[in-house]
Amino acid sequence: MAQQHTIQVIAHIRSDFHTKFGIPRQSGLVDALRATVVFEPEYRNPNALRGLEGFSHIWLIWQFSQAVRDGWSPTVRPPRLGGNTRMGVFATRSPFRPNPIGLSCVALEGIQRHPEYGPVLLVRGADLMDGTPIYDIKPYLPYADCHPEAAGGFASQPKEPTLQVEIAPELLGQVPEALREALLGVLAQDPRPQYQHRPDRVYGLEFGPLEVKFTVEGELLTVRQVQDRRRG
Prior knowledge:
This protein is mainly beta. The protein folds into two domains: 11-153, Beta Barrel (Elongation Factor Tu (Ef-tu), domain 3), CATH 2.40.30; 164-231, 2-Layer Sandwich (YaeB-like fold). Helix content is 9%, strand content 32%. The chain is built from three helices and twelve strands; from the N terminus they run ββββββββαβααβββ. Strands 1-2-7-6-3-8 form a six-stranded antiparallel β-barrel. The protein has a four-stranded mixed sheet with strand order 9-12-11-10. The chain has a two-stranded antiparallel ribbon with strand order 4-5. A hairpin with a 3-residue loop joins strand 6 (101-114) and strand 7. The relative contact order is 0.21.
């Protein structure tokens, strides 16, 4: 008989991704991405973070909140394999799991005292959608967590950015300077689904306050439009 245990949500993340589209497929792939971990009221005790400032990286344990479903499948189709080959769910990081739990290693930029939310964590490289529930935070330990000799199976090599990003100066000027490096990094990672590579299709990416429309032909991604969603 399966045992059950209630897990408490201790925090939520605030990131520039308001939808799943465009989120890097692993943490750390776009280092320029900034996000903030905001704790729930009962966990805003600064004593719970005592000593964390000494670590450069942390683990976030979180919920695939957009992938919660009844039941599960023993096999999934990883994007790394083009979405056509089935692999065992426990051999992947697919969100469609018996328990929709994600694990991300992010850089800890600092701990700040927010006037409304108390202590918050400033992190880099997170692959989480805005509002994602976080179950736990643990320090990254290089001597225990880093294994350069480890075998990576069918995902042994990182997916390098494959696209050259072309954006006209007048469009780049519409992107807040603080978001430019992160946006270009996200686009270079090729945010399209693996099964959608039509050169005539215009894709839309919501990033921070912006909606960015682009096309892709071959290895060239061209930004066609940048709009501030706050202005309608």
